[in-house]
Amino acid sequence: MAAQDLETTAKELVAEGKGILAADESSGTIEKRFKSIDVESTEENRRGYRELLFTTAGVEEFVSGVILYDETIRQSTTDRTPFPQLLEQRGIIPGIKVDKGAKPLALTESETITEGLDGLRERLEEYRGLGARFAKWRATYSIGAGLPSEYCVWTNAHALARYAALCQEAGLVPIVEPEVLMDGEHSLEQASKATGRVLQAVYTELHDQRVDLRGTLLKPNMVLSGYEASERASIQEVAEATLECFYRHVPAAVPGIVFLSGGQSDEDATAHLNAMNALGPHPWELSFSYGRALQAPALKAWRGKPENVEAAQRAYYHRAKLNGAARTGMYAPEMEREAAAV
Ligand code: 13P
């Protein structure tokens, strides 16, 4: 695929008022999510739940793409339309998670390296045949005494760039996801320092490995104080710290930054994105690629019961709409109340 096509797809994914739904939970993660609502994680329940999300009427106004998991990209609706085809028909771009998870990094006590490079060229080809037009690879970093280590920062940056180069070769837009985890008691400044360090290494490796940044998207954490910190930063402080860090470290050639929610409440994730966009314009589109922050209310409404499908779809639609508004700084907390009204 020509570089221009990759750029076009990347731009479509961050079209005005739209963002990405991350529905690529691995079997282990979705089991955890289902457990929280007392639903057994069978293949049919996973399929049914994803069908509920993907068939939500009108959501394409706010959702440009969906990230699928290996099992999900091979599944179909009840009437046998393969999920990638269903999404394309609705104007939503199908994507695929291609990493094989964060595993212990050798000779460290607690750090991780993301695996999945072996055989990736062949897997990308298969996924493209199944309809994927973009991909995702997530690396994770913890903040702590001496963490993240330079060793962890550079090994993950190298792997992310190898993945991104292979994606571009295969005609898929790579979403590059370095996630500095927000668990812990660290300050906003520590989060900013760690995030900046990670981004600097990632862009050095992407450059050295010949990745065309115009055909990529960045999926990072926001700069937040640790979830267990004694003093949590305000919405405005988070927005300003995040922007400052990204202005320093993310080249303007990158068309879009699609944030992960990383355990924030759905309302905080929307408010933070909104506050950043309200401070715009910026060199890149600032959008969302939320998993939990888009799905949490839908999961809670569904609880695995067919009679709750409509309520769950309403909850998902509402969250997508509010995040769509946050794309242009037009979200207001009062809009949360509309959910009860629909
Ligand atoms: P969260 O928004 O729940 O962090 O999920 C996004 C994601 O895709 C993590 O890899």
Throw out a few tags for this protein.
single chain, 342 residues, alpha/beta, TIM Barrel, eight-stranded parallel sheet, two-stranded antiparallel ribbon, 46% helix, binds 1,3-dihydroxyacetonephosphate
Question: How would you describe this structure to a colleague?
Answer:
With 342 residues, this protein is of the alpha/beta class. It has one domain: Aldolase class I (TIM Barrel, Alpha-Beta Barrel), CATH 3.20.20.70. The protein has helices at residues 3-13, 27-35, 43-54, 70-73, 83-89, 120-129, 150-170, 188-208, 235-249, 266-278, 292-302, 309-326, 338-341, and strands spanning 19-22, 63-68, 93-97, 102-104, 112-114, 134-141, 173-180, 217-218, 256-259, 285-290. It has an eight-stranded parallel β-sheet. α7 (150-170) links the parallel β6 and β7 (173-180). α10 (266-278) runs parallel beside α12 (309-326). The longest helix is centred in the middle third of the chain and has 21 residues, at 150-170.
Helix content percent band: 40-55%
Largest sheet: 8 strands, parallel
The CATH architecture assignment turns out to be Alpha-Beta Barrel
* Chemical compounds bound to the protein: 1,3-dihydroxyacetonephosphate
Strand order of the main beta sheet, please? 8-7-6-3-2-1-10-9
Radius of gyration: 19 Å
**DSSP strand count:** 10
